[in-house]
Amino acid sequence: MPYLSQAVLATSAGFLCDRLFRSGHFRLATLRKAFNSMAFAGTAACLLAITTIGRDHLLNILLLVLALSVNGLSMAGYSCTHIDLSPRYSGTLMGITNCLATFAGVFSPIAVGQIISLVVGADGGVDGDGGDGGDKVDLAERSLQAWKYVFYLAAAVYLLTGAIFVLFASNDVQEWNDPSSSSSMKNSKSSPSCEKYQKKADTNCD
After folding, report:
1. For residue 169, is it left (φ>0), alpha (ψ between -120 and 50) or beta?
2. 73, 38 in Cβ contact below 8 A?
3. How many angstroms separate the CA atoms of 98 and 14, rounded?
4. How far apart are the C-alpha atoms of 52 and 59, rounded to whole Å?
5. How far apart are CA 127 and CA 53, in angstroms?
6. Rounded distance, CA 163 to CA 149, Å?
7. For each successive 10 residues of the chain (206 residues), what is the average pLDDT?
8. I need a labelling partner for 192 at 20 to 30 A (CA). Which of 52, 117, 168, 177 fits?
9. How far apart are CA 52 and CA 152, in angstroms?
């Protein structure tokens, strides 16, 4: 369900972004940053909302589904900047950035485990004799608090990276996208100027 709704919203975001751009009222860079901001800020808002509702299982699930769904808007945001920056090498750029992004999937479970261990305790906060009912309640509260910290951290990452994208992202085609033009520019700089030939009508300065 989460990824199905995300796919629907991502596809819709792509169509809407293209339609707004073709209207001529918006710059492509503005649209990229707007859709990415809605995706990241919306996801962060859902994660923060989860920390306030306690143990309402149904509402927690709905917010997680909504978080993943809203994140689909980023398909019209940062995910398209690869082809904006370099249509020729967009596949290579996607491979590089996606490879780096997988490190988050590697280290995030380790970080979550460390947070829970620090807050709850390495032994789970239970004495050797199993503890009484009060210990179990205390353990449950500490576990809930630990997961709040996890969601705080995730929301902070979304907000921080979203702000970085707004401040520094560009959709200008890079000069290294076309090696032939780059090499021709270097050759033209190293070769004699055509200015001295302008007096000759038959001179070709190609």
Report:
1. beta
2. yes
3. 20
4. 11
5. 29
6. 21
7. 88 92 92 95 95 89 93 91 90 91 91 89 53 66 89 95 93 84 51 41 43
8. 177
9. 11
140: left (phi over 0), alpha (psi -120 to 50) or beta: alpha
Q: What's the CA gap between 68 and 57, in Å, rounded?
A: 17
Q: Is the Cβ–Cβ distance between 94 and 82 less than 8 Å?
A: yes
Place of tokens 């353990």: 139
What is d(CA 73, CA 139) in angstroms, rounded to the nearest whole number? Answer: 38
The model's pTM is: 0.77
